[in-house]
């Protein structure tokens, strides 16, 4: 699946690109609305993640333009504005869903899956071809009951073939489907990935030409020799055939599904924690801008340019920190932003309060990512145990 992310905050854009890539999505990133529109005209996307506050062309305007040109891909709006008015404006502009920053990453991923599932009911079906089985819900590939350890690109490549069973894909077709615009590799890269995927399939017991070369055209899955296996088979994640599972089996299935979900969340959290260490400097730079602004306010010397920079820095912090589990930090940044918006009406005591908020915010981001979230979870678990 190919997604377009239109987001001008570098921290949030890098974070979402990284996490969505780990979930086997191909992600193109635009840092303003006009560039987002140009990419939409050039490429086909399955879903668009769209920030509301964007330079050149804001998210509401871009969404209106998309719908006026009969663009059908689902649009998920992302914003730090939590008022009903902004939600109504976004939905009236043609957005399919609306998520307020800071948001939980697992919720974002769930909403993406729902929107994709609504658009195409086959997206969450288990895909099969002879003895090969790919489960999109678990991002799991099995051949003859052997679990294949695939790279993200190998997984997407195999999924592309399975969803288009008899279609031949040229190397340029594959590049367009599986690589983002920023990556832009050579066609030899496709050949290397085909070779690696064939080797892994062969190790699991498949024929070497399970993915066959159609000379002069490209690649496709080899047509099964048995007529009964000729069409690509798909079946629902829940059982469509066979006897109704027993209660014991249902409980076991639910347990494994919950375990998979837990593992997925832990992997996402680990990836975000690692990414936070790289992006922490950017957040520190934004807090430095807030410190400059509050110092100027204390001296009654805050100019419009610095105020706007500080307000934007607080706005971006409020959205980004929540993604990394800094729940308190996100609230602090939001309060700082609101006070900066009305700085002409605040008195000396409120300025001191603003100064203390910035200090608390600076201390907050020195904590490990997700530390506050872990405390909340542990507290809830203890409460449940006591009850």
From TrEMBL:
Residues 124-223 bind DNA. One of its GO terms (molecular function) is transcription cis-regulatory region binding. GO terms for cellular component: cytosol; protein-DNA complex. The modification 4-aspartylphosphate is found at residue 51. Keywords: DNA-binding, Phosphoprotein, Transcription, Transcription regulation, Two-component regulatory system. InterPro entries: CheY-like_superfamily (IPR011006), HPT_dom_sf (IPR036641), OmpR/PhoB-type_DNA-bd (IPR001867), Sig_transdc_His_kin_Hpt_dom (IPR008207), Sig_transdc_resp-reg_receiver (IPR001789), WalR-like (IPR039420), WH-like_DNA-bd_sf (IPR036388). Residues 2-116 form the Response regulatory domain. This is Transcriptional regulator. The lineage of its organism: Bacteria, Bacillati, Cyanobacteriota, Cyanophyceae, Nostocales.
């Amino acid at each position: 699946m190919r997604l377009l992310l239109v987001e001008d905050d570098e921290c949030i854009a890098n974070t979402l690109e990284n996490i969505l890539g780990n979930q086997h999505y191909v992600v193109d990133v635009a840092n303003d609305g006009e560039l987002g529109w140009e990419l939409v005209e050039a490429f086909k996307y399955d879903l668009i993640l769209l920030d509301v506050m964007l330079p050149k062309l804001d998210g509401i305007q871009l969404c209106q333009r998309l719908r006026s040109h009969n663009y059908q891909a689902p649009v998920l709006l992302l914003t730090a504005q939590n008022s009903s008015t902004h939600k109504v404006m976004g939905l009236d502009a043609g957005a399919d869903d609306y998520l307020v920053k800071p948001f939980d990453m697992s919720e974002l991923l769930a909403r993406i899956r729902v929107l994709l599932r609504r658009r195409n009911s086959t997206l969450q079906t288990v895909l099969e071809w002879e003895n090969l089985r790919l489960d999109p819900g678990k991002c799991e590939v099995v051949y003859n009951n052997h679990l294949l350890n695939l790279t993200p690109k190998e997984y997407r490549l195999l999924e592309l073939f399975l969803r288009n069973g008899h279609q031949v894909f040229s190397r340029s077709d594959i590049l367009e489907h599986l690589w983002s615009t920023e990556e832009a590799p050579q066609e030899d890269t496709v050949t290397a990935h085909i070779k690696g995927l064939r080797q892994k399939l062969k190790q699991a017991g498949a024929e070497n030409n399970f993915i066959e070369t159609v000379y002069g055209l490209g690649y496709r899955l080899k047509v099964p020799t048995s007529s009964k296996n000729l069409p690509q088979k798909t079946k629902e994640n829940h059982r469509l055939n066979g006897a109704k599972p027993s209660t014991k089996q249902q409980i076991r299935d639910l347990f494994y599904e919950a375990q998979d979900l837990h593992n997925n969340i832990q992997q996402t959290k680990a990836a975000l924690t690692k990414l936070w260490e790289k992006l922490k400097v950017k957040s520190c730079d934004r807090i430095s801008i807030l410190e400059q602004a509050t110092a100027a306010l204390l001296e009654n010397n805050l100019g419009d340019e610095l105020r706007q920079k500080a307000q934007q820095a607080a706005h971006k912090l409020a959205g980004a920190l929540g993604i990394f589990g800094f729940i308190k930090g996100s609230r602090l940044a939001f309060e700082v932003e609101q006070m900066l918006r009305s700085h002409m009406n605040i008195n000396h005591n409120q300025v001191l309060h603003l100064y203390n908020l910035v200090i608390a915010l600076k201390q907050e981001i020195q904590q490990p990512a997700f530390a506050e979230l872990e405390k909340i979870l542990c507290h809830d678990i203890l409460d449940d145990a006591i009850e």
